[in-house]
Design a protein that fits this description.
270 residues, mainly beta
Length: 270
């Protein structure tokens, strides 16, 4: 499904420019894309969320070679360590552009996923079976869970349907709590519930592209977060942004076509 904002013009598809937290898309660049839903009824994308957040490392994502605001392609493995022959994208969401994970997720829910893939990436390893895993520095709320469950605003149910998460028993952390820990109080009389307008780093005179409701960290509470895998998605296609001046999109097309990947691509004009 191609978003309705796209208009086909021969071999090129036109997209209206959208400023995301990471800015506008770059001419000649390659983006891994998944589309937004086509109806309001389908806007619940919570099935993509990982709950409890997953930490396949002992202390830090750097143990698997993933750097903050970086991307890595790793082979999927069986529990005994043997390779499965399927390669996945591991993508650390930059906290400068998306201070809290819900910022990224709500932008994706409204505009679809579009993540820059370096042209030098081993596209030949990627297939339609490849997953796109997302890590965020605030991916797992660690402590104090009792304070968050006690003063829970009920903004989101557990995406995995874990009953004791929604019963506020506090046995372990729930991904839904991340919507209860967005920003801190600037003054004691501020409202805990607040509207977050996105992207946060847009110019002051620019209208937000979307917004969502969140809750601040309870007043006086020091929230502790850890990096974690918080979302899994798939790759619908690659999009190459046409470069009418320097023609850099030609190198991008060559990189994908010569790789032999089974993931399709389209050229878009922005």
């Amino acid at each position: 499904m191609v978003p309705q904002s796209q208009i086909a013009t021969g071999g090129v598809t036109y997209l209206g420019k959208i400023r995301r937290g990471c800015g506008f898309r770059k001419a000649g660049a390659i983006y891994a894309v998944s589309d937004p839903p086509i109806s309001d009824e389908a806007l619940n994308l919570d099935f993509m969320l990982v709950c409890p957040p997953w930490q396949p490392w002992e202390k830090s994502p750097t143990e698997i070679g993933l750097a903050a605001q970086g991307m890595l392609i790793l082979e999927r493995r069986y529990p005994d360590g043997a390779g499965m022959g399927i390669w996945d994208i591991w993508d650390w969401i930059g906290q400068h552009d998306y201070p809290h994970f819900p910022d990224f997720f709500e932008e994706l829910r409204n505009h679809g996923k579009s993540r820059l893939i370096p042209r030098t990436s081993p596209f030949k390893l990627l297939s339609q079976e490849s997953a796109h895993l997302f890590v965020h520095a605030y991916g797992r709320l660690v402590d104090p869970l009792d304070a968050f469950y006690k003063d829970r605003q009920g903004l989101k149910k557990c995406p995995a349907g874990i009953a004791y998460h929604d019963d506020n028993s506090g046995l372990d952390t729930c991904t839904a709590l991340l919507w209860e820990a967005v920003d801190w109080y600037q003054k004691p009389d501020s409202l805990r519930l607040h509207e977050v307008e996105l992207p946060r780093n847009r110019p002051s005179n620019e209208t937000p592209s979307c917004s969502y409701q969140a809750a601040r960290v309870p007043f006086g509470v020091k929230a502790i977060f850890e990096p974690a895998v918080i979302m899994q998605d798939w790759i619908t296609r690659f999009e190459i942004v046409e470069d009418p001046i320097d023609q850099k999109h030609r190198d991008a097309i060559k990189a994908i076509e010569e790789s032999g990947t089974s993931i399709p691509y389209i050229i878009v004009e922005e």
